[in-house]
Structure formats: structure tokens, C-alpha cells
Design a protein that fits this description.
Keywords: NAD, Oxidoreductase. The structure is a single chain. By secondary structure, the protein is an alpha/beta fold. The protein folds into two domains: 100 residues, NAD(P)-binding Rossmann-like Domain (Rossmann fold); 181 residues, Rossmann fold (3-Layer(aba) Sandwich), CATH 3.40.50.720. Helices cover 36% and strands 13% of the residues.
Length: 297
């Protein structure tokens, strides 16, 4: 029996909580929590936390790195050199973020960090769509809040930063890709199923869009025969583009902080299933932990 679990990507369904009486915390190393059944966790008086402070800068910088990689066709030009096709460089002219429209799907912590980084590259405007953000708040960030249709039809770079929910699953389907500019780039460092993978593969093959950078997929790892592997106009990452020593140091620090808070009988930061905080079962667990902590000091 354990009081807390620090967890990377393991799934937790209803059966995971059967017969579990002491557990009070699942500390997730990241910001996604779709792999945890929050209703089941709440019913078992278990808090689920995430580490948004640790992930904000690494994922934002990874997003910019992928965006710039698309701009300058880094993967294609690397292949040109390795394959001895030097003169082919003339057929792969790049572009800049400068004077282009950036569209952010989701305007949470990571997207806001992207907004801070973008001015150095002088985009013409930054658009965003997020039902949780007010127009006033967006304006204060220097962002124009628009609907999804406007964003995907006018943006040169479309970057996904929303969580995976029943509302966002398959958010970008064939219909949406056909609305995009044929010069548009799509970047996804959030969750794979937000994009219909067959649809983006078709969009890339048929040049409905110019390119994409995908660090996440509908199923991970991707299969050996995944059609995206054969396409030149896409940068692929193994859900690790943001992995840095600093990221893992900071998510470890934040997960340990959450665990120590529970050990002291306190509520940690960044609890996502906030309904659990009102449950008597959780309060009883925290009181036991508090008394134990005091007795050991």
C-alpha cells in the first residue's frame, strides 16, 4: 500500500482503484491527464496533479523549434546533403515567421509562453481560439481571439495547445484541412488524437497544406508501416521534442513537492479533479498524514 504515486504515462482506469484505501495522490509528470479516469480517482478519494510550471518553457521552445524547422525545411535539407543531392537545394526554398499569421488552438500556459517568444520573429498577428479565455485577457497578451473557422482559414502556422477532451478529439478533420491555406503549416505538441491522423496524412499527400510537425500521434509508438513515415513534408517526433534535462529536473521537483505536501496533510498545487477536495474520505486521509508528519518532527 502506498500514499502517493509519481506517474509518467501509465493508464489508470476504474479497476486501478479497486481495493485501494491509502492512496491519496497520483502526481502526473506533465500536463496531460486523459490517461487517468478522474471520476474513478475522485470516487476513491485520490487527487490527481499535473506539472504545468515545469512543462511551460520546454514545450513552448520545442514548438518554436519545430515551427522554425518547417520554415527552413531543415529535415529536407539535411537529407539533401546525406544523399548527395546538393543541387536540389534550389527546389526547397524556405520562409520566415516574419509578417505571417500565427494561429494558436488553445491559449493556456504553454501557448502563452509561445506568445512571449514569438515577437522576436515579427509575425503580423497572433490569433487564438479558446473558449476558456476572455477577449480582454487575450488582448492584454497581444493576441486576437477568433473562432476556429477564422483561425484555420487565415493562419500560416497553426499550433495546437489544447488538452485532449471529448470536445477536442478529432478537432482537425478532413473538413478543417480543406479550409486551410495550401501554404499553411500545422504543429502539434499537445495530444495526437486532437488531429484525425488519416486526414492530415491525406492533406500532406495532396498538398492541401504545405507541411506539418507532429510530436504526438493517435497511437504511440507509431506502427512500422505508418504512412506519415514516408512523407517528406512532415517533421516527426517521438512525443519527446520537449524533453530536456531541465524539464525532467523540474517535473521531478514539482511531483516531489506535491508528494511532500500530501505527506504534511496539505493539498498540493495543480489538482485537476478539484471535486475530490470536498470529499470527507480525502480529508480523513490528509488528517492521518498530518498527524503522522507532526509526530515525526
Amino acid at each position: 500500500p502506498v500514499d502517493a504515486v509519481i506517474s509518467m504515462g501509465q493508464p489508470y482506469g476504474p479497476s486501478s482503484f479497486e481495493g485501494i484505501n491509502r492512496l491519496a495522490l497520483i502526481a502526473r509528470t506533465g500536463v496531460g491527464f486523459e490517461m487517468v479516469d478522474l471520476d474513478a480517482a475522485t470516487a476513491s478519494d485520490v487527487m490527481v496533479t499535473i506539472t504545468p510550471d515545469a512543462t511551460r518553457k520546454p514545450v513552448a521552445s520545442a514548438t518554436l523549434a519545430l515551427m522554425l524547422g518547417l520554415c527552413h525545411q531543415v529535415v529536407i535539407k539535411d537529407r539533401i546533403v546525406r544523399e548527395g543531392r546538393w543541387d536540389d537545394r534550389f527546389g526547397h526554398m524556405g520562409c520566415e515567421i516574419r509578417d505571417r499569421v500565427i494561429g494558436l488552438i488553445g491559449l493556456g500556459n504553454i501557448a502563452r509562453e509561445v506568445v512571449k517568444l514569438l515577437p522576436a520573429f515579427q509575425p503580423s498577428v497572433i490569433l487564438a481560439t479558446d473558449p476558456q479565455v476572455s477577449r480582454t485577457a487575450a488582448t492584454e497578451m497581444g493576441v486576437e481571439l477568433v473562432d476556429l473557422h477564422t483561425l484555420i482559414s487565415t493562419s500560416d502556422f497553426i499550433s495546437i495547445h489544447c488538452p485532449l477532451t471529448s470536445q477536442t478529439r478529432g478537432l482537425l478533420s478532413e473538413r478543417e484541412f480543406k479550409l486551410m491555406k495550401n501554404t499553411a503549416f500545422v504543429i502539434n505538441t499537445a495530444r495526437g488524437p486532437v488531429i484525425d491522423q488519416k486526414a492530415i496524412t491525406k492533406a500532406l499527400r495532396n498538398n492541401w497544406i504545405q507541411g506539418a510537425a507532429l510530436d504526438v500521434f493517435e497511437e504511440e509508438p507509431t506502427s512500422v508501416g505508418e504512412p506519415l513515415h514516408k512523407l517528406e513534408n512532415v517533421i516527426l517526433g517521438p512525443h519527446a521534442s520537449a524533453w530536456t534535462y531541465e524539464l525532467f529536473r523540474d517535473i521531478g521537483h514539482d511531483c516531489v513537492d506535491a508528494t511532500l505536501a500530501v505527506a504534511r496533510g496539505e493539498i498540493p498545487d495543480h489538482v485537476v479533479n478539484t471535486n475530490v477536495l470536498e470529499r470527507q474520505g480525502l480529508r480523513a486521509k490528509l488528517e492521518i498524514f498530518r498527524q503522522r508528519w507532526v509526530s515525526q518532527q
